[in-house]
Amino acid sequence: MTFGFRHISSIVSVVLQLLDLVKPLLIGVILALIFNVPMSFFERYLRTKPRLRNKSRPLAICLALILVFGIFLGVTVLVVPEVVKAVKLIVQITGGGLEQLAQMETDSALANTTAGQYLERIDIDWLGLKTQMEEWVKARSGALVNQVVGAAGSLAGGVISFSIGLIFAIYILSGKECLKRQASRVLHAWLPRKFGDSLIHVASVCSRTFRLFIAGQATEAIILGTLCMIGMLILRIPYAPMIGALVGVTALIPIVGAFIGTIVGAIMILTFNPFKAFVFVVFLLILQQIEGNMIYPKVVGSKINLPAIWVLAAVTIGGNLGGPIGMLLGVPAASAAYALLKEATAEREKSNIHS
Fold first, then answer.
1. Threshold 0.85, pTM exceeds
2. By C-alpha distance, which of 23, 9, 343, 36 is closest to 215?
3. Mind telling me which residue stretches traverse the membrane in this protein (predicted)?
């Protein structure tokens, strides 16, 4: 124990290095748990068709991959060009607005008006401000290029890790029954029977809980995206179907995803009507409060048999410990712990009664 405390920094460093080495495999395990939800649905359906029964597993994996990646790719193709266009338009409007303000200061016809006198009192060199902005962008261009190169390298590494994880996930999904049998044999061969059975039971509870959590999270995202679209249509806010789909997809990321959807949607609406953008932000903030405190605990909590109060506690504690990943994994981890503690408590009570 004393040795561990003295060398805690070295132990943590070794653990982090090991986690970095197996990161693609961990990504593969998480992807396998996620894709297993739609794959199981497709597989059950395909097994009812006599001609497709022997090919149900590979077809189900392909359909699950197409469904998940198709949703994300579709939303990206629809939203990203509009966001780029909106940002360009905002930059153009900003530059043109500075030029117009400079012209208003020098316009003799406006000099005697209230706006002209107000601009004259402010005494701002609008053209100089525009020039300074352009010079700042040029001066930062070198640093920006270095940052872009670094980000591109990190992105490439992430893509490679994700690709390896995806291939590993496909292998897991293809032979998940065989992997379960092999893991069971290894645990029973090298560990005491009772302890091995306990580990298998814990893994089974965790897997089932995570599967139900993914199903609940997807249901909650569909509800939030639909409510967002309906509300935007009622308030006559533009891009309602597109932003509704975006909010639904980003809602799969706990807490952080809601802010991403709000910011991107507001940028898109801002170029069309600034007032509508303000209305959208207020509307979505109210909707997120309702969703976070009423819909999310009920929908996700009912799927994983976890009371609403513990769902909120798991999201809060998981977010403080591990950020967005902690928020994502906190709820299924709390649900698994809740189910295991409930079983252990029932067995303890039964043994106390008999004793």
1. no
2. 36
3. 25-46, 58-80, 148-173, 221-239, 245-270, 277-296, 308-341
CA diameter of the chain: 100
Which residues make Cβ contacts (< 8 Å) with residue 219, sequence separation at least 6?
Answer: 299, 303
pLDDT tens for 315-337 read: 778 777 766 667 777 878 888 88
Q: Are 254 and 338 in contact (CB under 8 A)?
A: no
Residues whose CB falls within 8 Å of the CB of residue 220, separated by 6 or more in sequence, listed in order: 251, 291, 295, 296, 299, 300
Establish if 7 belongs to a structural domain: no
Same domain for 288 and 195? yes
Q: Do residues 339 and 205 touch, judged by C-beta distance below 8 A? A: yes
Residue 165 sits in the same domain as residue 273:
no
Residue 281, both tokens: 């932000």
Range of the domain at 155: 22-174
Q: What is d(CA 113, CA 110) in angstroms, rounded to the nearest whole number?
A: 5
What ranges make up the beta strands (E) of 245-316?
Answer: none
Q: Considering the domain boundaries, does residue 98 fall inside one?
A: yes
The last residue of a domain, from among 110, 145, 174: 174
Q: At what angle do helices 256-270 and 56-106 cross, to 10 degrees?
A: 50
Instruction: Please identify, among 114, 143, 174, the residue that sits at the C-terminal boundary of a domain.
Output: 174
Report yes or no on 10 lying in a domain. Answer: no
Average pLDDT over residues 103-128: 52
Q: What is the DSSP letter of 191?
A: S
> In this predicted model, what pLDDT tens digit does every residue of 155-183 receive, in sequence order?
777 788 889 999 999 999 998 889 989 98
Domain count, the chain: 2
Taking all residues of the chain, what is their mean pLDDT, rounded to a whole number?
Answer: 78
- Measured CA to CA, the distance from residue 241 to residue 139 in angstroms comes to 40
